[in-house]
Amino acid sequence: MGGCFSDVRGGKEAVGGAQAGPTVHNDAVEFFYRSHGAFPLFSQLELTMSASNLLDLDVTSKSDPMVVVYAKKSDGKLEELGRTEVILNSLNPVWIEKVSIAYQFEMVQPLIFHVYDVDTKYHNVPVKTLNLRDQEFLGEGSCGLSEIVTKQTRSLTLNLMNKNWHGGMRKFGTLTVRAEETIASRSAVEIKFRCSHLENKDLFSKSDPFLRISRIVESGGSIPICKTEVVDNNLNPTWKPVCLSMQQFGSKDTPLVFECFDFNSNGDHVLIGKIQKSVADLEKLYKERSGVNFVFPTSRQGHEKLFVDQLFEKEQFSFLDYISSGYELNFMVAVDFTGSNGDPRSPDSLHYIDPYGRLNSYQQAIREVGEVIQFYDDDKRFPAWGFGGRTTNGTVSHCFNLNGSASDFEVEGVEGIMGAYATALHNVSLAGPTLFGLVVNKAAEIASRSLSSSNNKYYVLLIITDGILTDLQETKDALVRASNLPLSVLIVGVGNADFKQMEILDADSGPRLESSTGRIATRDIVQFVAMREVHSGQISVVQGLLEELPGQFLSYMRSMDMKPLTFHAGQPSTS
Known about the structure:
There is one protein chain. The protein is of the alpha+beta class. The protein has three domains: 27-41 and 185-315, Immunoglobulin-like, CATH 2.60.40; 44-181, Immunoglobulin-like (Sandwich); 321-560, Rossmann fold (3-Layer(aba) Sandwich). It has 13 helices and 26 strands. It has helices at residues 27-35, 145-149, 246-249, 279-288, 319-324, 361-373, 413-427, 437-453, 472-482, 500-505, 531-535, 541-546, 549-559; strands spanning 43-52, 65-72, 78-83, 99-103, 110-117, 136-144, 155-159, 174-181, 187-196, 209-216, 222-227, 242-245, 256-262, 270-277, 292-293, 305-315, 328-336, 381-387, 389-390, 396-397, 400-401, 410-412, 429-430, 457-465, 487-493, 526-530. A hairpin with a 5-residue loop joins strand 10 and strand 11. Helix 8 (437-453) runs parallel beside helix 9 (472-482). The longest helix is centred in the last third of the chain and has 17 residues, at 437-453.
């Protein structure tokens, strides 16, 4: 849902050229099944989508569309497979984010595609957290996956329908879906582009250029694979490096189209120029330190050039490559014992232990996250702390051992955490305030110590809380210091508090965290989910918290140039 004053920052971000590579299926899930002797027979596919003539529900601008893809199960229920990015002000969008699906020949796999117009106020919110009930429904298409893959072009165009529309006969546009098989390869290329002497397309300022890169396919069309960020007010821009996997660019000789646009918030981006080059051509440009002239939409002659300032090949190992080689995920948990949770003896308390076995939100988060992560931890001994409680010695502690021990903070398995938590509710009085700094520092200390003795451990701290932070800046400082350590922090918010502070710590929709001394976090290590979203059925705890964990793990390994423990050159990829 656009608007002439819409916040366009989300539309200026890069898409598809991140270090983590393209979207893939859940490596952790596949590894779990394979380790238990189950070898699913499937081909991994990526779905690319574009639309034409979408319904325009906005008054002063065009719709801001996003696609959500579902698999329809045998019981009729829909399982969400993924979402595209939001494209601002466009009735004919071409999305870059792909949705991954396992194609199984022996099964009928019905797919449902929902297209939404995303409200302006959500443009800087990660698409995976958007509440779809808050967005305008533009239309729906459906087909079987086999209908797509059996087409010669592996693409299918669907007429969108809208059963909820009561405005008489109306065309809702079309959605084209294309399927491509993923390539099991670690090969990638990192490229840094710049341009010089771009034509100024703006009247009162300079152009705001960005590059869009597309791959030409056999049918003669092209598929966008990457978009750089927008560089504001600059006719000689240098963009951040993009990392393209072989899955994206195909081969070094595959022709790629490079289009330079001037960004406009109304969605009508103005083409400055375009060229067609392969990765092999780019390598030559880089070695010769020469630029190449753009071809212009008009017959005019210009001086605009594209340069390759950096280009090198690299191997991108998958999450599975590391885990199967011996890397471990070590689970840690910290539980909020502040008074705002309510008296644990009252059924209204967030800490109430139900005598009939129904789990409270704290227990649910511990069990669901712990049972997934413990699979990747050899000894299954987990550090467990509480914070904000008055311990048996009468003092309020913001990092005490959950098991009551003065020296040993580890417990045995997920059941050990659950037992220590239940016992602590009888021995620790709820107090406050809510401080994260000490538990983050404690987890960081353990992660830091491991570097001197072993390089095969990555730590995951789960913090479960109901309240508003009193030490927001101190927590930011601790997280920034920890951002170059093998550590991720998962935060679950329980109850109905305002969790805007947690969304600040989870830097998905904003800048990276900055410490009080001005240091910027090396990487994003925080993921937050509100339990009320889980209870409303929008997401599961595991989905909300662990979706980004493999990417955070990989960002650390790649930033430290760490390879799988048993990797040998020429070894085939496991992903």
